[in-house]
Design a protein that fits this description.
D-Maltodextrin-Binding Protein, domain 2, alpha/beta, 2 domains, 270 residues, disordered N terminus, 5-stranded mixed sheet, globular
Length: 270
């Protein structure tokens, strides 16, 4: 009987120790986040100047800012999932939602957004939408979120009709192609370089700037900009940490506002 009691007591002691270790582990994680001194921020290559515009405020808030650049719109989220960066800053909310849905991730965007991009139609051959002929080749982004946005813009311009039952339509959900357009899909950064071979392209103006074009040279502009806000994206467990709140606050500064005004394709959200 004494042996049985001794075994039970030993078992309870082990459970207590394990519970304490678990609490201590969680506490260490929380303390690590609260005591964070370096923020590793991932941006696309075209976002490096944007990151530098907030560096001074981030350092004044007590953090070192390490900026990692990526050449496309996929790797910043891959790196976030792998944990090699703390936060990224390149995508709008619908793109994030689409990425989470397709990849089973639960990344979150900080509540206070920073900006939204001009989204428009560009052409080297025509000066207005009305001049675009039947059978024209129209370039669209190949990611779902931005392709949906482009198609909705074309519908708003009266050029196509989309299936009403689909929330995020693609080219396969066009029910009326009123001008027999041929749609060409390409990655966002590639579309501007395809412009000489196409009649028009539809995309965010920042990619036009990157390719040496003027973002303001569009022949039609989407009016849904505020529905596509950009902000800082991190892993779900970091949604409420202090360093993220501080980072968001640092991005609401005049230096960043001036950068947006000079860059020309990004509209401040503050």
């Amino acid at each position: 009987m004494k042996k049985i009691i001794r075994i039970i007591l030993l078992g309870l002691m082990c459970l207590t120790l394990l519970s304490g270790c678990s609490r201590n582990s969680n506490q260490v994680d929380e303390e690590t986040q609260d005591d964070k001194t370096t923020i590793i921020l991932g941006v696309r290559a075209d976002g490096i100047d944007m990151a530098e515009a907030i560096r001074g405020d981030v350092e004044a808030a007590g953090y070192e800012l390490e900026v990692i650049t990526f050449d496309d719109s996929i790797q910043p989220n891959v790196a976030l999932g792998e944990g090699s960066i703390d936060v990224n800053w390149f995508q709008h909310k619908p793109y994030l939602d689409s990425y989470n849905s397709s990849n089973g991730t639960d990344f979150v965007m900080a509540d206070q957004y920073t900006h939204y991009p001009i989204f428009a139609m560009y052409s080297e051959k025509y000066d207005s939408v009305e001049e675009i002929p039947d059978g024209a080749k129209i370039g669209l982004c190949n990611d779902r979120a931005n392709q949906t946005r482009g198609l909705i813009m074309l519908q708003d311009l009266g050029l196509i009709k989309l299936a009403e039952s689909v929330d995020e339509p693609t080219i396969y959900d066009i029910v009326e192609n009123l001008h027999a357009f041929e749609f060409i899909e390409a990655e966002m950064s590639v579309l501007p370089r395809s412009l000489p071979d196409l009649d028009a392209i539809v995309l965010a103006g920042q990619h036009m700037n990157n390719a040496g074009f003027e973002a303001s040279s569009y022949i039609a502009e989407s009016k849904d900009g505020p529905d596509y806000p950009l902000g800082f994206v991190t892993r779900k467990e970091n949604a409420d940490v202090q360093w993220l709140k501080d980072l968001v606050e640092c991005a609401r500064n005049e230096s960043l506002r001036r950068y947006y005004e000079e860059e020309g394709s990004l509209i401040p959200f503050f």
